[in-house]
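User: Now give one protein:

AI:
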Amino acid sequence: MSAFTATDGTRLAYHLRGTGEPLAVLPGGPMRASAYLGDLGGLTAHRALALLDLRGTGDSAVPADPATYRCDRMVDDVEAWRAHMGWEHMDLLAHSAGAALAMLYAARHPHRIRRLVLITPNPSALGMRATPEDRLAAALLRADEPWFAQAFPAFRAWLAGEAEFDDVVLPFFYGRWDDTARAHTVAELDETNEEAGERYFAEGAFTPEATRTALAALTAPVLVHAGEVDGGPRPALARRTAAAFPHAECTVQPGAAHYPWLDDPERFVRGTLAFLDR
């Protein structure tokens, strides 16, 4: 574990894994420690991953001001990290809610981005977000799975605000509900700062029109990678996300859900490297 100091004095940690050209990585959650990303399906055999623990998560310190958990407030953290690492420009990969932060960073510091990879991204920064209807439609694609009959009613009730989140719905977030997926869920509660997650999307975090205007001028190539059976985003929303960038492509991984590097590691790594090494 390595660390640096943000502009407000908060000590932030990052983790270095693998060998090769550096790849900066922002975790999702929102506000989940980067540990859940693991080696991104074996990407560490080809790239030196630098995984940031956002403030108040993992090995990073809790900030004095909780308002700084808001997504747009952490753009300065990413820029301070880049400067600390000595990168003139960087390849940046972000997962899920971390993609919203990556988009804001790219809008504010476009000349620092060499390539941008958005994995099953949350496009709130663009004024879009997966709806309950999106998630239910994706869930229905799993109707032939043995766990579906028990999980779907709980999933529908949670999305409708009629029930608390129940672990029985976790299979919907994985393309394969196997031992690897089950093990991946075990540490989730310990890895996530729930208070920070509630503040991440707070009012004022996003100005979609201004962000869209800024991103329309981004010259860096962008990859938006979706899972075929993921509900947030569904492939259609991922394609709309890609359309916000002038030099973007969208790929859909068959059979994958929200963690595509777990569902088919070889396919995920092969596709990601094909984009990064182009």
Remarks:
- The domain at 2-131+193-276 is CATH 3.40.50.1820 (Rossmann fold).
- The radius of gyration is 18 Å.
- The longest strand covers residues 11-17.
